Amino acid sequence: MNRTTDILETLKQYLKAKGITYKQLAEEMELSEASIKRLFSKHTFSLSRLEDVCRILDIDFYDLALMDKERSRKTLKKLTIEQERILINDEKLLIFLYFLINGWTVSLIIEEYEYTEVEAVKMLTKLEKLGVLALYPNNHVRMLISKNEFWQTNGPLWQAYRNIFIDDFMDSAFGLPNERLVFSPGQFSEASLKIIRKKIDNLVKEYNRLAEMDSALPLKGRHSTGLLIGFRSWVFTGIADLHRGNIGGDNSLHRA
After folding, report:
1. What is the pTM assigned to this prediction?
2. What is the 3-state secondary structure (H, E, C) of the chain?
3. For the segment 149-201, what is each residue's pLDDT rounded down to a tens digit?
């Protein structure tokens, strides 16, 4: 694909992630839905039209170009099990890697946190040997792992930090405008459960896609966040304690 096609593909993905349809975009731009579809399919966006779309998305063209560059990079999906085991034994190195993954410069890490310049250089060398980044002059780096979900599912990092992550994350009243805490028990058919699981999977994909693209943007204006989703077969302990058993009966309360 050429650069125009690449950028428009990034724009389409960002529209999808923001939940903006072609119809909504057409209304904002005072065009027909067919015209919007034609602009994307024929790649006939003028610069002014492209700037209009960026305005609606509350980004500028430079942001879009950075997102496209990040989206098109070839990266490893996740750390390997062996890489995780090494990082677990050096927490300061792991935190240093976390900053780099999120787009911090080495100079800013040194300025804001307790890392000396000598220590930072040593850590960069370790991480390069570990195969998680490529090191360039003046301490510039190119990450070789995903910018968001970089650990293995149920791997060493998650096993080591799961309880700490969850306890620390939940230590909040979740009262700020951008915060959400929802708990809703229910009983569903298998067909409905499949729909719910699919919607959760799609949400996680969009969350990770946006995080990956936004990681290319300047730190100013970005907010550190966490997303915790739990969904499983479950009966409240107080109810389960009252259960007489399921021998010879049909207790739908215990079905998932």
Report:
1. 0.61
2. CCHHHHHHHHHHHHHHHHCCCHHHHHHHHCCCHHHHHHHHHHCCCCHHHHHHHHHHHCCCHHHHHHHHHHHHCCCCCCCCHHHHHHHHCCHHHHHHHHHHHCCCCHHHHHHHCCCCHHHHHHHHHHHHHHCCEEEEHHHEEEECCCCCCCCCCCCHHHHHHHHHHHHHHHCCCCCCCCCCCCCCCCCCCHHHHHHHHHHHHHHHHHHHHHHHHHCCCCCCCCCCCCCCCCCCCCCCHHHHCCCCCCCCCCCHHHCC
3. 788 888 999 999 888 889 999 999 999 998 999 999 899 999 999 999 999 99
